[in-house]
Write a structure and sequence with these properties.
The chain has 154 residues and is mainly α. It has a domain of 61 residues. It is built from 6 helices and no strands.
């Protein structure tokens, strides 16, 4: 299991500066990273089963981790870097909004619709008069019909 990093690993090495177990959160045996299969079976799955999730796997934890960050307001670019995605678009696949965020989105839309409805009702209640400057006025010369300017043949 990779450690949480504060900075990227050194170029050309897998573990970089974290090659020593004291930099790891879950060190394994013989100064090696913890065996993820063992860790999942003996640590994660028993805890998850007690919480009502008997069939947990690493991929679900990846979704949960990213969604927890989303629902806590962590920026997408930060989430992307923390889970090692190449793009924010990929990160969005792993992001699932909880009920509170869904409700907030619905409330925001509802408020916009209510504001638009109030503006329309206000516009209907106000008399629709054009300002005098906007009413076109024809001069006497414009009201004359000059037959000599109308072509008689097509």
């Amino acid at each position: 299991m990779a450690p949480l990093r504060r900075e990227p690993a050194a170029q050309g090495t897998f573990w970089g500066a974290y090659a020593k177990p004291e930099g790891w959160i879950f060190p394994g045996k013989r100064n090696r990273p913890v065996d993820t299969g063992w860790f999942m079976t003996t640590v994660i799955k028993p805890i998850a089963a007690k919480q009502g999730f008997p069939e947990i796997h690493w991929h679900a934890l990846r979704h949960w981790n990213n969604s927890a960050m989303l629902n806590s307001g962590v920026d997408p670019a930060v989430r992307m870097k923390r889970v090692g995605h190449a793009s924010v678009t990929t990160n969005l696949i792993y992001s699932h909004a909880d009920d509170n965020l869904q409700r907030a989105a619905s409330d925001a839309i509802w408020q916009r619709l209510q504001s638009a409805k109030q503006r329309l009702q206000q516009q209907k209640a106000e008399p629709q008069t054009l300002p005098s400057a906007a009413v076109p006025r024809l001069s006497e010369a414009q009201t004359e019909v000059r037959f000599d300017r109308i072509p008689l043949s097509p």
